[in-house]
Amino acid sequence: GKPRDIFTMRCTWLWLLVFLLESCRTASVSKKPNIIFALIDDLGWNGCGFNGNNTEVKTPTIDMLASSGVIMNNYYVYKFCSPSRASFLTGRIPGHGIWQINPGETAPMGTNPNMTMIPGMLKKAGYATHQIGKWHQGFYQPRFLPVSRGFDSSFGFLGGGEDHFNQCNGCANTIPFPDWSNHTRPCPPRFTHCGETCPHGGGVDLWQNHQAAFGHNGTWNAYAYSAHAEKLVKEHDESKPFFLFLALHNVHQPVEAEPAFLDLYPKDKYNSTTMPRRVYNAMHSAVDSVLKNLTQALKAKGMWDNTVLVFSADNGGTYEHHGVVPGSSNWPLRGHKYSYFEGGIRGASWVHSELLPKSVRGTRNDALMHISDWYPTFCHLAGVVPDDGYKPAPIDGVDVWPLLTGKSNVRPAANWTGGPGENEVLYGVGHGTKGALRQGKYKIIVGGQRKRTDGWGAQYPGSTPAIPPPAHEACREDACLFDVDADQREMHNLAHSHPHVKDKLLKRYHQLAKRMDVPNGDEHVADKLGLQWDGQSTLVDVRRKGDKPACKKMWANHGFFSPWQQDP
């Protein structure tokens, strides 16, 4: 009987060992936090209540999560849409291997394919990765689609803007204000797109995974994205950690809102001057509703206590149509989207997680941070080395988890020789002629900042006064220097009173810009096709609509935009 007993004991120990190893593996996986990055389009510094200056807007979920998390006071983004997103996804500063432009919907351009985006890095750690909402990283070839850049699934639109109700991309910035009165109106033809009257003549931008999302257009974006996010959570396989890039289109133009959110702001309390603010407030409340539904779904699934939720603007509150969008506010900061003033690049942001030490919850953090930092920070949380091997432009972002958890208050230098140093952020390379750099408390702006993106917006647009920009274009003749710790409103240019500081920072800016001026990789395509600026920030194809391959493909695809070239 003894040999059999020994055999039985050995089998028992073997099974016990397998069980323990599996338990250890499961425990290891479960320790990797779920990560959600919520990017809010064109959110102004004063858009929600958590920055303390807007008591009118109703964003209770956002403000509660912010006030019980960590609010960032010195968190920076790029001055407009696509480069900010590319910076988050790649961990690079715009201009350092990634573009500093917005690609037009018909432009054959895509974010540097030699880089591994953050979902691809997280997949190495076993994450399920999902993207919802605005992409804006190019899509002319399938290799530039979200599912080709590391996401398991995607649902949203591929371009830079569209109507919130009918998903017509031509409606993004062309409808004169007010434009919320008729949710069924078509988009007028746009020469920079395909000259179609959308949706009847095509021009719909809605995509899911590998194909156009036929039959899903016609639902207000916030509702569609909220429902899809909840569905992803409910169907998630909990043996894997969860990553969601939730890129909402609110509060980008066109300024539109569902009646359910407009009703939160009684019409009789507004007049013709303040009515745009009512609608803009309603769009912010819609964002709040999406966050509320998502957090409830995470709690119901039992995932909330192991989730890190980051809330971020992609740039400051905006101007369009050659003026500040009525209702948008960066108060008390100077400037708007498209400028290097604080109102254009200081992002409204916070982090909420039960994984944060209790000692830092409910605090404001003054450490210097940048949107590129989430790449190495998320890699750290996932246990992945934040290096995709692209040597021409190494990763600029730094792991800010020690800053968020109170273990440090000093921003570390970039993890490559010659990059930005300690407590230093280059906001944009700008080919050495138009950029900005912050070093400690000082910030230098190089190159003119157009008057229409300058000035100090109102706290409550339409009700309280705004301060117009200076008579002459700021920073054009000479670089501007500000002490943004003491003068966050940037009202006192120190370039003449502190020439030694200005010269030091200007030299440092040029040094970094020269070292980091690395192309995205498809600039030659833009030159070859003669793509032109739209007068603002976007490279567009100005050929006749019949000569644009993107338009031909769109019409052949039942009016939905899709890739129009094969992968090389």
Strand pairing plus helix content: what structural class? Answer: alpha/beta
Figure out the total of helices. 13
**Span from first to last CA?**
69 Å
Question: What kind of oligomer do you see?
Answer: single chain
The averaged pLDDT comes out at: 90
Helix content: 25-40%
Biggest sheet strand order reads 7-6-5-4-8-1-9-12-2-13
Task: Give the tally of β-strands.
Answer: 19
Strand content: 15-25%
What does the radius of gyration come to? 24 Å
What does this structure look like?
The protein has a ten-stranded mixed beta sheet. A four-stranded antiparallel beta sheet has the order 14-15-16-17, with helices on one face. Strands 3-19-18 form a three-stranded mixed beta sheet. The protein has 13 helices and 19 strands. It has 568 residues and is α/β, with parallel strands linked by helices. The protein has helices spanning 2-31, 60-67, 81-90, 118-123, 221-234, 259-262, 275-301, 342-345, 374-382, 401-404, 499-516, 523-529, 549-556, and strands at 34-40, 70-76, 102-103, 128-134, 153-157, 207-208, 211-212, 242-248, 307-313, 319-320, 323-324, 349-353, 363-370, 424-428, 435-439, 442-446, 480-483, 532-533, 538-540.
